[in-house]
Each structure stands twice: as structure tokens, then as C-alpha cells.
Amino acid sequence: RVLDESGFDNHAILRGCKVVALPNGKRAVQLNGSSSSVHIAAQPSLNAWNARRTWEILYSPGMDIPVSGIVYHALLAKHSSYGEGIYLAQNSKPARIVFLQAGPKQSLEYPVKDSKGWYHIVGTYDGLEMKLYINGKLVGSRNTPIPPTVNSSPVSIGGGATDANRCSPGI
Question: Among 37, 44, 94, 151, fewest CB within 10 Å belongs to which?
Fold first, then answer.
């Protein structure tokens, strides 16, 4: 269990993850790509009251990413059926970082060129347009006619958005 220090009780439950030390002395959660994930129970503080939102995660595959017949592997999601969040698409080479909003028809993608590199991933929606930033650089934007849903789903990191077979490898 990872305790939330914000005061909102958004504590995380680690499932099959390892906590590893990084070269800078900080710690990170390592995902095995097959059965590990982090879950944060639904809490009022995680339920967006309007359609504007920002998704942010620091991610490194840390290994060669295997090709999978399953397209969307959750990196950071708040929906039970890959409707909203940041995902890793592993159905082709290179794998792609995908920002989805209100389903796969509204998406932005970025290829994972370095499987050992780090990616600071930010997806935003301002009510009209969604944008994807990688390492501080805007890599895609589009008008978005369908706003994201306001839901009380739990937050998943690394897997479990739909089923146990959609886990992402990495740190």
C-alpha cells in the first residue's frame, strides 16, 4: 500500500509490483507487463466535476516492449473499458503511447522509439481540444466533440482497466 500524502485518502494498492530504486535515489513502481498494477479506489476527490482534465505520468518501458494482440494496455486510466486515459498500444512495432478520451475514436498517439528511455507524458482536455505532450513538447492536438465522462471509476496504473490481460511493462 502506498499512502497518499495529499490528505485526500487516495491511497494506492500495489498488485504484483516491485518497488525499485532509481539511479537518482528515488523509488518507482516496476510493472511486470503481465499481472502487476496499481489501483486507487474511487474517491470524491478523483471524480472530475466537469469535462476538463489533465492526465500525467512519468514512464519508462525499461525493456523491449513485446508485440501483443491486445491493443490498449493501461498506463494511467480512470475507466473500466479503456475510455479515458493514457495507454500503451502494443499491437505493432514500435509500440505507441496513446491518449484516449471518450473512447478510441478520439485519440492522439506517439511512438515509443527508445524502450529504455523515460517519457513524461501529459494529456490535457480544455473543453474543446485534447493535447498530448511528451517530455514537455506538444506532439499532437485535435478538436474533440465528445467530452470525457464524469465517472466514479477507480484509477488504474499499469493495468486492470478492462481485464488482467491489459497490463503494461515498465517503471
Answer: 44
